[in-house]
Every structure is written in C-alpha cells, then in structure tokens.
Amino acid sequence: MIKNLIFSSVLLTLFPLAVFAAGPQQTRGATPARAAVPRPVAAQPAPRAVAGTSTAPVQRSSAGSSKTMGFGFATYGTDNIGMGGATTPALSLWLDISDKSSVQALFGIASTSPFAFGVGGVYRQVLMGDSHGGLHGGLGLNLGTMATGATTSFFLNVFPVVGFHFGLGGLASNVRLSFDGGPFVRITPAFQFGIQPVSAFGGAAIHYFF
Predict the structure, then answer these.
(1) Coil/strand/helix, residue 174
(2) If DSSP codes are grouped into helix, strand and coil, which group holds residue 169?
(3) Residue 116: in which H helix or E strand, if any?
(4) Residue 24, domain member (yes or no)
(5) For the segment 138-183, what is each residue's pLDDT rounded down to a tens digit?
(6) What's the pTM?
C-alpha cells in the first residue's frame, strides 16, 4: 500500500510538469497567420490620340473679330452741323472697344484761305446686333472754325446719334459703312437745335478695317 501511495504521489507531481513543458512547445511550433497583402492594380493605358485629331478644346472666333480698327472718311465732323448743304469730308479713325461699343475720331480741313478746320469724336453703343452689323446709338461732339467770308468763327456742336452700320461682306468684308442722324445742339456761333442726319449725305461714313 505504501508503494501505491508513493507511486500516486510521483504521478501527481510529474503530470503538471509534463503539461507545462508541452504547452510552450506547441505555441512555438504554431505558424503565425500572415497579413493580407493588397495586390497591385494594373495601370490602365492612356487613350491613344488618333492621327490628325487633337484633344484640346476648339475655340471658334467670329469672322473679322480680330479687325478692330478702321480708317476712312466721314461726311461730317469738319463743318458746323445744322448748316445744311454739302459737307466737307473728314478723315476718320474708328476703333472698336468691344463687340458692343466703339469710338470714332474725326479731323478735317474745310478751307485753307481762310483756314477752317474741324475735329471731333463719336461714341457708339450697339443696341441690336454687334460691332460688324446692327443698330447703334451714341453721342458726338465736334468743334473748330468755319469760314464766314474772309474771316472765320468758332463753332461747337453736341449731337446724339442713332443709326446703323454693316459690313459689305465677300471680298470687301473689311469695309464697313455707317449712317447716323438725330438731334443736334449747335452752341456757337449761334444757338440752334434740330433733328436731321449728321450730314447732307445721311451721316455716311466708310472705313476699311485692318
């Protein structure tokens, strides 16, 4: 019986030691789980450009849009408006500020003996259409000297204008005509108010744009 008791005591002592020794071996032998590695995504090839084509946006411009300055003649600007009769032509420079507005500069010599001249300008705003053709309104002013017999006298005019302008098109697409009329106020040499074309030729002006 003593032998059995001793044998049982030895088993109870060795069993925990065996379990303790076996535990770390199994842990060390286990293979750790690997983290999932994302697969690289293949880059999509860029679309190939077809020969003779362009992916850049196409910008369209209206015909004549780059031609904003014109030089020509006007049938007004040199003489006193409201005098009636023939009008001495004046040199004219027309400048488009934008597609809807423009300014015109005028200079002319009516006579050399006695010396008479006129300078002026007109501002126009397009009411319908654009700078290449349509209806416009604006305000003009001119001043200078006018021959009265053997002498000259100073004149000053303010004239609102209403008119129309258009290009000839085709081979003459750079040529533009305009016609103006409306009320005028002659301040000197004698005050006068009236409504008529700016000149005896219907307030006509012609310019070549370049």
Answers:
(1) strand
(2) strand
(3) strand 115-130
(4) no
(5) 999 999 998 888 888 999 999 999 999 999 988 898 999 999 999 9
(6) 0.66
